[in-house]
Design goal:
The modification 4-aspartylphosphate is found at residue 734. Helices cover 65% and strands 8% of the residues. α12 packs antiparallel against α13, α12 runs parallel beside α14 (274-290) and α14 (274-290) runs antiparallel to α15.
Length: 928
C-alpha cells in the first residue's frame, strides 16, 4: 500500500510512534513493522472486552498502512469489522468495510476479494439489506472457486445457506448447506470445521425431529469452541425449533428450544454480550408464550427490552410478542401501550429507510467539500503542534494505559469470581435437589415400613383370630405394594430419561377396568370417612385397545392424592366419559385446592407445593402421570380454586373394538363407615391420635384401644376442633400433615391453658436431629421415629401417664407448696437437665451435688421436680440417662452395650437392662 501525500505520512508516523509506545512492549521497539502488527493483532484477539480489542486492531491497521504488507493490512480490516459485528453495529461495520472493497480490487487479490465480499455480505444481511447481501455472497462464491481451496468453497456455500435461511427460503438454504457438507467430507475435514454447517442445517430442515440429529453432531465439537461460539450455537438451536411450522411442534420441542436459549443467555451474560443476551431473551419469551407460561414470558421479554436494541426489526418483533403476552395476562393497559410503541417503531422504520435514501445522495454531494475542509483544518493543526506536545501525549497515554490495565485486571478478576460463583450455585442447587429427593424417599418409606412390620407382628399375635389376622396381613400387603409402587415410580422415571419407555397395548373392557381401579380405593377412603361418588357413561360392552397399566398408574396417583388432601367426612367425585374415541376421566376433591402459580409447577419433577411439603411424597407422582398421559397421546390438566378443591382431568384418545353406545348409569357411591365407637369404657384413659395416613391411624388405634379409649383426627385442624370439647390424658401426633402440621399443632396447644400440660408425643418418619430439637423446644414429652416397636410405644405412653398421675397426685397433696413462679422454675428445670447431661458419664453423681449447683436444698429441689415432672430427682436423672442411652443405641453411636452404659453413667448391666425395658418396652440389645 502506498500513500502519496508526504505531510500526511509525517503526521501519521508521529501519531503512530506515540500510540505504539503505549501498546507495544520495549522488546518490540526495534523489531520490524510486520512483527509489531502481528503482535497487536494477537493482543487484540486475547482481549476480553470488544472495545479493548478494537484499540489494538486499529493500531495494527494504522501500522499496516505504512508498509507493503497487504495480507496483514486486510486481516486488520477483518478484525475491526468483526468487533462492530459482535456489538451488533452492522451499519457501522458496512460503512467501515466498503472503502476497502475498492482497495481489494486494486490489489487484484482473489483471497482478499473473497474475504471482503464475505464480511460485507454478512453485515448487510443482518441490516435487512438482503438483495445487496446476496450479490456479495454470490461474488464471494465465484472468488472461492477461483482459489481452488475446498475450505473457502465450503465457507461460501455455508454463507449462502445462512443467507437463504435468513430470508425464509429453507429449501434453497438446505441445498447449499449439503453442498458445503459434501465438500468437507471430500477432504476429511475435522468435525470442528463442520460446526457452522450443522448450525445452519438445524434452521434449514423442515422436520423438527431432524434438528436434534444435527445438534448432536455439532455438540461433539462445540466444547472445544470459544464461549462466544457456544452462545451462537445455542441461539441457532433455540431459534431452529421456533422457525418450524407450529403444527409440527410438541411441548417436547419447545422445552428443548427453551433449554438452548437459557444456555445462550447464561454464556452471553458471563461475556457481557448484550446483543446475544437480547436475542436469547426474546427467543425464550417466544417459547414460554407457546408453552402458555405467560408470566415467565413477560419476565423474559421485559429483560430483553431493557437491553440496547441494535436492530429495529428485532425490536419490533420483541414489542409484538410482549403485547401478546400482556393481553394473555389480562393486562390490557400495558398491552395497549406496548402495541402503540410497536406501531410507532414501525412508522419510524419506514420513515428512517426513506430518509436514509435521501441522506445518502446528500452525503455524496457534500462529501468532497467536507473532505477538503477537514484536510485543511488538520494540516493547520499539524503545523501548530510542537515538540512540547510529545511528552504530554506520552504522559497521557501512559496514564490511560495504566488505568486500562488496572480496569482490565479488575474486570478479569470479577469475571473469574462470577464464573466460580455460578458453578458453585449450580452445584449447590443440584446437591440440594439430590438431598431433598433422597430425604423424601427415606421419609416416605418409613410409614409403610411401620405398617408392614407392625401389622405382621399383630398378625402373629392374632393367629387365633383369623379375621383380625387377615386384616393385619392385608394392611401389610397394601403397604408393601406402596413401597414397591414408589420404587417403580423412580424406575419409570429413569426409563423416561433413558428414552426406553414403551407402550404395551391390549384389548380391555373399558368400564370394568375403570371400576376396578376406582373401587380399589374403597377401604382407604372408608378409614378417613371420605365418600367416593363414581359416575360413568361407558357401556359394559365397549372394549378398547390401550395400555391399561399406564392409565391405572395415572388414576391411582390422582385418587391417592385426592384422599390425602380431602378433609374427613367430605366427598370425592370420579366421572368417566367416553365420546368420539376419547376417554375423559376427572377426579374432583373438595380440599384446600392449589394456588394459581403452582398449578403448572406441580407437574414438574421433584416439585412439591407448600401443602405437599407438609404431607410428604417424593415429588414425581404427578410428573410421571403427566408424562404417561403424553406417551398415550393424551393430556393431564388441573383446575383448582384455593379453598374450594381441585379437579384433575385425564384425556386419552382410544381405538374401540365396537361402536360406543350411551349407557348412563346412576352414580355408584363408596359410602365410608366411621371408626367403631368404644365409649363403653369409662375407666380407660382418653388418648387423641393425630395422623393423616388412614392406615397408620387405624394401626395406632388398634395397638392402643385395648388399653385406652382412642379418638382419631386426620390433621391438626381436626385435632384442635376435638380439643374444644374433649379433654385427653395424652396426645400422639405425626409432624407432616395437611392444613396444620404437628409443629403448628403443638404451638397452638401451648396457648390453651387446660391442654398445654397434656403429655404430647411425636410419632414421625422425620429422623433429623433438628426436628427432634424443635419438637422438644416446643414442650413435647417424647419423640418416636417410624418404624417403631409396639411394646416401645405402649411402654413410653404408660411411663408418661404414670409421671403425669404422680405429678397431679403430688400437686393435690401439696397445694400450699405449689410454685407461682412458673416461668422461672421452668428455666430452672432446663438448667438442671443441662447439668445432668454434662455429668452423664459420672455414675457417682449425687443429688446433693445437683442441689448445690442450682442453689437449692435437696428438699426444695425435690418439690420443684415433683410439681413439674411428677418425678423425684433420682428418677429424673435416671430418665435422662435412659433417654440418652436410647438415642445412642438408635444412632449406633457405640459398638457395644457396655460402651453405652458407661457413657450414660450406669455401671450395672442387669440394672441397665431392667430399667431400659421398663421405660421403653424393649431390651437394649434389640436396638444393637
Amino acid at each position: 500500500m502506498k500513500i502519496k501525500n508526504l505531510p500526511s505520512i509525517i503526521c501519521l508516523l508521529l501519531f503512530q510512534t506515540i500510540c505504539s509506545q503505549q501498546l507495544l512492549p520495549d522488546s518490540l521497539q526495534q523489531k520490524s513493522v510486520e512483527d509489531k502488527i502481528i503482535f497487536l493483532q494477537q493482543e487484540g484477539q486475547r482481549q476480553q472486552s470488544i472495545d479493548s480489542s478494537n484499540v489494538y486492531f486499529n493500531e495494527a491497521l494504522k501500522l499496516a498502512k505504512t508498509c507493503d504488507c497487504d495480507s496483514l493490512y486486510f486481516r486488520s480490516v477483518e478484525y475491526i469489522s468483526d468487533t462492530y459485528y459482535s456489538q451488533g453495529n452492522y451499519k457501522k461495520a458496512i460503512a467501515f468495510i466498503k472503502p476497502f472493497l475498492a482497495q481489494a480490487k486494486e490489489s487484484n487479490s482473489t483471497i482478499y476479494l473473497f474475504r471482503i465480499h464475505t464480511h460485507l455480505a454478512k453485515n448487510l444481511m443482518l441490516s435487512e439489506q438482503h438483495d445487496e447481501a446476496l450479490k456479495h455472497y454470490e461474488s464471494a462464491l465465484e472468488f472461492s472457486k477461483k482459489l481452488q481451496n475446498k475450505i473457502y468453497l465450503a465457507d461460501a456455500y455455508n454463507n449462502l445457506g445462512d443467507m437463504y435461511n435468513t430470508t425464509g427460503l429453507h429449501k434453497n438454504a438446505k441445498k447449499y448447506l449439503l453442498l458445503a457438507l459434501k465438500v468437507y467430507n471430500s477432504i476429511n475435514a475435522p468435525e470442528t470445521e463442520k460446526l457452522y454447517t450443522y448450525k445452519n442445517l438445524m434452521q434449514a430442515v423442515e422436520n423438527p425431529e431432524d434438528i436434534e440429529e444435527y445438534a448432536k453432531k455439532a455438540l461433539n465439537s462445540l466444547h472445544k469452541s470459544e464461549p462466544k461460539e457456544q452462545a451462537s450455537f445455542y441461539l441457532y438451536e433455540g431459534d431452529a425449533y421456533l422457525s418450524k411450522n407450529e403444527g409440527l411442534l410438541t411441548p417436547k420441542h419447545y422445552k428443548k428450544s427453551l433449554l438452548a436459549f437459557n444456555k445462550a443467555i447464561t454464556i452471553a451474560d458471563s461475556l457481557n454480550l448484550d446483543i446475544y443476551k437480547n436475542f436469547g431473551l426474546i427467543g425464550k419469551g417466544s417459547v414460554l408464550l407457546n408453552l402458555n407460561r405467560t408470566s415467565d414470558a413477560i419476565a423474559a421479554l421485559e429483560k430483553a427490552k431493557q437491553l440496547p436494541q441494535t436492530i429495529p426489526q428485532n425490536e419490533f418483533y420483541l414489542l409484538r410478542k410482549l403485547a401478546v403476552a400482556y393481553e394473555r395476562n389480562n393486562n390490557y393497559k400495558k398491552a395497549f401501550i406496548t402495541s402503540k410503541e410497536m406501531f410507532t417503531l414501525q412508522d419510524s422504520i419506514s420513515h428512517y429507510q426513506s430518509k436514509e435514501k435521501f441522506a445518502e445522495f446528500d452525503a455524496k454531494f457534500n462529501l468532497a467539500e467536507k473532505d477538503k475542509e477537514i484536510a485543511l483544518q488538520e494540516l493547520e493543526i499539524a503545523k501548530q503542534r510542537n515538540a512540547r506536545n510529545k511528552w504530554i501525549f506520552s504522559s497521557i497515554g501512559t496514564l490511560l494505559l495504566g488505568l486500562f490495565i488496572i480496569l482490565w485486571l479488575i474486570t478479569k478478576q470479577k469475571r473469574k469470581k462470577t464464573l466460580v460463583q455460578m458453578k458453585l450455585e449450580k452445584e449447590q442447587e443440584i446437591n440440594q435437589l439430590r438431598t431433598k429427593f433422597l430425604g423424601n424417599i427415606a421419609h416416605e418409606i418409613r410409614t409403610p415400613l411401620t405398617l408392614v412390620s407392625g401389622n405382621l407382628n399383630l398378625a402373629l399375635e392374632n393367629l387365633d383370630n383369623t379375621t383380625k389376622a387377615k386384616k393385619n396381613l392385608q394392611v401389610a400387603l397394601d403397604n408393601t405394594k406402596k413401597i414397591t409402587d414408589d420404587a417403580n415410580e423412580i424406575l419409570e422415571l429413569l426409563k423416561f430419561e433413558g428414552h426406553k419407555m414403551t407402550l404395551n397395548k391390549t384389548a380391555v373392557p373399558l368400564r370394568t377396568s375403570l371400576e376396578r381401579i376406582v373401587f380399589s380405593f374403597h377401604s382407604m377412603a372408608q378409614i378417613k370417612a371420605v365418600e367416593i361418588s363414581y359416575y360413568s357413561n361407558i357401556a359394559n360392552t365397549i372394549f378398547v385397545n390401550t395400555d391399561i397399566g399406564k392409565i391405572e398408574k395415572i388414576i391411582n396417583n390422582l385418587l391417592s392424592n385426592a384422599i390425602k388432601y380431602a378433609p374427613s367426612n367430605s366427598k370425592i367425585i370420579v366421572n368417566d366419559v367416553f365420546n368420539t374415541d376419547t376417554l375423559s376421566v376427572s377426579v374432583t376433591d373438595f380440599g384446600e385446592g392449589i394456588k394459581y402459580d403452582e398449578q403448572k409447577k406441580i407437574f414438574e419433577r421433584f416439585y412439591q407445593s407448600e401443602n405437599a411439603s407438609k404431607v410428604g411424597g417424593i415429588g414425581i407422582g404427578l410428573a410421571l402421570s403427566k408424562e404417561f398421559s403424553e406417551l398415550l397421546n393424551g393430556s393431564l390438566t388441573v383446575d383448582s380454586k384455593p379453598g374450594k378443591g381441585s379437579t384433575f382431568t385425564l384425556k386419552i384418545p382410544m381405538q374401540t373394538t365396537e361402536n360406543n353406545t350411551e349407557n348412563v348409569t346412576k352414580p355408584t357411591s363408596l359410602i365410608p363407615q366411621q371408626f367403631p365407637n368404644h365409649n363403653n369404657s369409662s375407666i380407660k384413659e382418653h388418648i387423641l391420635i393425630v395422623e393423616d395416613n388412614p392406615q397408620m391411624a387405624t394401626y395406632l388405634k388398634e395397638l392402643l384401644e385395648d388399653i385406652y379409649h382412642c379418638d382419631v383426627a386426620f390433621n391438626g385442624e381436626e385435632a384442635l376442633n376435638l380439643l374444644k370439647t374433649q379433654t385427653y390424658s395424652l396426645i400422639t401426633s405425626d409432624i407432616m400433615m395437611p392444613k396444620i402440621d404437628g409443629f403448628e399443632l403443638r404451638e397452638k396447644i401451648n396457648t390453651i391453658e387446660k391442654h398445654k400440660y397434656t403429655p404430647f408425643i411425636f410419632i414421625s418418619a422425620k429422623t433429623l436431629e433438628i426436628d427432634k430439637i424443635k419438637g422438644f423446644s416446643l414442650g413435647i414429652a417424647d419423640y418416636i421415629v417410624k418404624p417403631f416397636n409396639k411394646n416401645e410405644l405402649i411402654a413410653r405412653i404408660k411411663n408418661l401417664l404414670k409421671n403425669k398421675a404422680s405429678r397431679i397426685k403430688w400437686q393435690l397433696e401439696n397445694t400450699n407448696q405449689l410454685s407461682t413462679t412458673e416461668r422461672s422454675d421452668q428455666k430452672l428445670l432446663r438448667k438442671i437437665e443441662t447439668y445432668i447431661v454434662e455429668n452423664l458419664d459420672n455414675d457417682d453423681f449425687k443429688i446433693k451435688e445437683l442441689a448445690d449447683y442450682v442453689g437449692y436444698s435437696q428438699r426444695q429441689l425435690a418439690r420443684i421436680m415433683k410439681q413439674y415432672t411428677g418425678m423425684s430427682p433420682v428418677k429424673f436423672i435416671l430418665e435422662i440417662r435412659l433417654q440418652k442411652a436410647f438415642t445412642f443405641l438408635q444412632n449406633k453411636t457405640f459398638f457395644t452395650l457396655s460402651e453405652v452404659r458407661f457413657a450414660v453413667g450406669i455401671s450395672s448391666s442387669a440394672y441397665f437392662n431392667k430399667k431400659f425395658k421398663e421405660r421403653f418396652g424393649i431390651a437394649p440389645a434389640d436396638l444393637i
